[in-house]
Amino acid sequence: MVLRRLTYYLPVNNSMPPEQFDFRKGLSTIDPILYFTQCVRDSQNHKPTRLTMAVFLDVLKAFDRVWIYKLLKKYFNVFGIKGKALPWISNFLNHQNFGVNFHDDSSSNYKTYQGIPQCCVLCPTLFSLFISGIEKYVNPCQIGLFADDIVLWCSATISKMESQLNRSLVNIQEFAENYKVTLNASKSAASLYTTNRHPYNYSPELFLMSECLKYRNFNAKNTTWNSTITNTRSSELSNLVSDLFLNDGTHNFRSYSYGSTEVLNLTFISPGLLPYSFWRVLDNTGRDHLPILVETELNVNRTGAKNLHWNFRKADWSLKISLTILYRKNLFRTTWKMNGTTSGTPFLQLLILHP
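Given the sequence above, the corresponding structure tokens read:
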């Protein structure tokens, strides 16, 4: 109820800055990304072309270190939140207790004297109001906010960008000191965006809290989301496929040059994953085989790989054999070209894994 009234009150009174995209009606995490990328594109389309340098700032324990007194004072003086709403928010923030549960044991409860709980739907909006006003300290640079995620950027020549960004970083430090917000320089980074296909051998000197920020070069090749997925999946699943190729005792392609001539294509299928899966060619099995399809859009970590290893041994081979002929006749009727030679319809080995 309080959140709904705040979300109605703030836009009507133009209290929320347009640079803050966090938990606002009609906005999502995509909007600040589009806003930032559009500004980068606009600077690149400008004649003469301007470079864009961005600084990604990390706030140390953002929600846990909110100064409650300063927060309530800002609500009253800046946003005009009065009446019964302000005392209610004050009681909500000043009567928070916490404890620790471990197995069947529980610790005593202790009162919190600072910070905003992150488990409440109201708290992201409260924090957004607390951090608002930082956009007034960054002129002539631009800023984008999503709760405690801050990106600061400037479009100009290299020399001007450095001086303007350093000036804005000094002003942001002043804001942080006034509100007792700690900026984590070790996790903050700078990046340069340019249309030049040959990246500059350049490392900007940008300082935050007297510490030089790390420079990240994002102009490397294969930075698309699909290539990232492919790299992570291949590193986790290559050993699994190598050790348990069909699990039928036949030679696998990594151990022997001729490999197993029966298996040309291998697909992992878990019934619970099918609605969310997107299959992609991940790796070639060798000169005598077609690619193995083992990649999905789902996260695959080491724990997940172990589960796949267990499911692999539990594969329903009778069902696999009965469905193989069906897929062989109706599913793949394309011609594959491998190493300059053309092979016919690939033979599909289908593994039905237990969820």
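The CA atoms of residues 296 and 313 lie 20 Å apart. Try to locate this feature in the token string yourself.
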